[in-house]
Design a protein that fits this description.
This is Putative metal-dependent phosphoesterase, PHP family. The protein is an alpha/beta fold. The protein has 5 helices and 11 strands. The chain is globular and about 40 Å long. The relative contact order is 0.20.
């Protein structure tokens, strides 16, 4: 299944991307699933039915959690996660809750991740391809993940429709809910998938 794992809706103040635009265009772009990862909120869960939609698209709710040490993408049961945690605290919560925490765009020049995040033993995965990063920033993330044996993930970081599906991940097992996705990613049943095949048609 081809997923865009990093998508912002209008629940993120910086995003212009409406939920309706995602639902109407994701399948035609060639996406099988999207993770809606708004900044510090999972409130989109009140607006959309998670799981497989009528057209076959799998819609899941995640979150991009802001910490002083760097942004962290969260997949799993994080609705009740307290605000204002440090990166180590978020990683410990992810482990305790059975979710997955991913260092988001960790080598972005204007907001690099700190060693407290990158060197933490509970960091399992790194976003090595981000649709808004430069090639140099993505290459640095990929090199770091390779050196340290981290799972390599990616996402568009879409804030408008023209960015949706710019970076995807191919998940090798069927995904119907958050638990399925987390299990597949933790097991390494995934690989970077490049751009969605229909993205240039939007």
């Amino acid at each position: 299944m081809r997923f865009d794992l990093h998508v912002h809706t209008r629940f993120s103040a910086c995003s212009r991307l409406a939920l309706s635009a995602i639902l109407e265009n994701a399948r035609s772009l060639g996406l099988d699933g999207v993770c809606l990862t708004d900044h510090d909120t999972m409130d989109m869960a009140r607006k959309v039915r998670e799981g497989i939609q009528d057209d076959g698209l799998c819609v899941l709710i995640g979150m991009e959690y802001t910490t002083p040490e760097g942004d962290i993408l969260l997949y799993g049961p994080f609705e009740n996660l307290a605000p204002g945690l440090s990166a180590p605290e978020v990683l410990e919560a992810a482990e305790a809750l059975g979710g997955l925490a991913v260092a988001a765009h960790p080598f972005r020049a204007r907001q690099p991740a700190w060693p407290d995040l990158l060197d933490h033993p509970l960091l399992r995965a790194v976003e090595v391809e981000n649709g808004r990063n430069s090639p140099v920033e993505n290459a640095a993330a990929k090199a770091f993940a390779g050196r340290h044996g981290k799972c390599c993930l990616g996402g568009s970081d879409a804030h408008d429709l023209s960015e949706l599906g710019r970076v995807t991940v191919l998940v090798e097992t069927a995904v119907c809910g958050r638990a399925d996705l987390v299990a597949a990613l933790l097991a390494g049943r995934c690989r970077l998938g490049g751009s969605a095949p229909g993205r240039k048609r939007v």
